[in-house]
Amino acid sequence: MLDPRVIDPHQELVDYSALAEDEIAQIVRVLQGIRRWREAEQKMSFTSRDRMKLNETDMQALRFLVVAKNDGRIVTPGALAGYLGISSASTTKLLDRLAAAGHIERAAHPTDRRALTIRITQQTHEQVRDTVGRTHARRFEVAARMSPAERETVIRFLDELSETADESASAIQEATT
């Protein structure tokens, strides 16, 4: 259903009259490729979360903790809440869940006795690295095989595509308020 000739035969939304049939077919293949990527990404994300028994916010928290560990940064509950954009109550529940599952450790802050720090456990760090990290490594290799000009084209395309999603989200939000 990504073909405008099918979903918009009267060109009410998309004017494709200046395009040749082979150009339209190629554009449709691009859109199909985006859909396949999105579906594969969602499947991989779900599989990783399911394997580790995590929800999306839990996984975002663990990725943040991996980066912080790699950078040698101390993470507090407040810093994690700020990154995730969640309340302190939600952060407490999240940390309780992750601690109970053995994914994180809480410890006293080295310089502020009133504060706690959060660290990802070594076992979970390795799990995240082995699932998410390996996937990102393969993606990096795919991008590395492209020429600099091809990468710039893809960057521009993805940036413009992201702008359309942002604009659509804003329009939907405005329509519902």
From TrEMBL:
It comes from the Bacteria. Gene3D superfamilies: Winged helix-like DNA-binding domain superfamily/Winged helix DNA-binding domain. Residues 17-163 form the HTH marR-type domain. PROSITE patterns: HTH_MARR_2 (PS50995). InterPro entries: HTH_MarR-typ, MarR/SlyA-like, WH-like_DNA-bd_sf, WH_DNA-bd_sf. This is MarR family transcriptional regulator. It comes from Microbacterium kribbense.
